[in-house]
Amino acid sequence: MGFFDKLKNGLNKTKQSFDEKINHVFSSFRKVDEDFLEELEEILIMSDIGMDTSIKIINHLRERIKKEKIEDEEDVKKALREEMQKILEVTDISLHLNTKPSVILVVGVNGVGKTTSIGKIANRLAKDGKRVVVAAADTFRAAAVEQLEIWAKRSGADIVKREEGVDPASVVYDAIKITREKNADVLIVDTAGRLHNKKYLMDELNKIQKVINKEMSEADKEVLLVIDGTTGQNAISQVKAFKEEADITGLVLTKLDGTAKGGVVIGIVEENKIPVKFIGVGEQIDDMEIFNAEDFVRAII
Question: In whole angstroms, how far apart are CA 4 and each of 8, 18, 36?
Fold first, then answer.
């Protein structure tokens, strides 16, 4: 199965939700008029895209319908897809890892799938011929280190770990040293799942970033925020909170299979101007792909 088919299958609940509602609007209205557009706008809002983003999409769609004299159902859907795609392509989605070594710092709240995402990203990098070191800087939970070790082994990455409870920043410091010794290409840093309202955890994240910035000042850095697709609108507040504490360069979307809330992705990107860099739609090590806006929109509408 190709990744687009996996994506389509994974986003099936979101697609069903969108298509069912949109088709209902088309069957309820004989022409594409203002009432039709208001109804469509309401559907977008109810589909977790968010009010401001939904209004923006419909305003652009309204202009296009008038200018291009769009009347056909499929043409309206096509224009809607294109407007969503424009939002998702607003920023550069490529990974910038051109220095040797480069670093990826992975952050997010508890339970979003950070560890599995790291394993999958490490696997992708290894397939591209890169040597990867993983730093187990979540020292609060022994289970987190054990889980990361399993994923590192699967992906062929080296892992740097210490005993439970040690200072996470010291683990990162050691990992940077080992990355250089092994002449590795990329260091991926796992961090403790932190609630965005826990100040001491956010302070710790800042400490980790200071170590990276000091010891790897010349290195390319990616700071990836992992978002659980099932959380809907709550994901938007998470992004805003983490943006205050870290220079987030990209988002990793997980658990989109099995949720009807995939539309939230569009609202997150529009409100924060942060690109989605990876998308996961499954449990296997290959079930993560570089985000493609056109494929995503085609998979939901």
Answer: 6, 18, 31
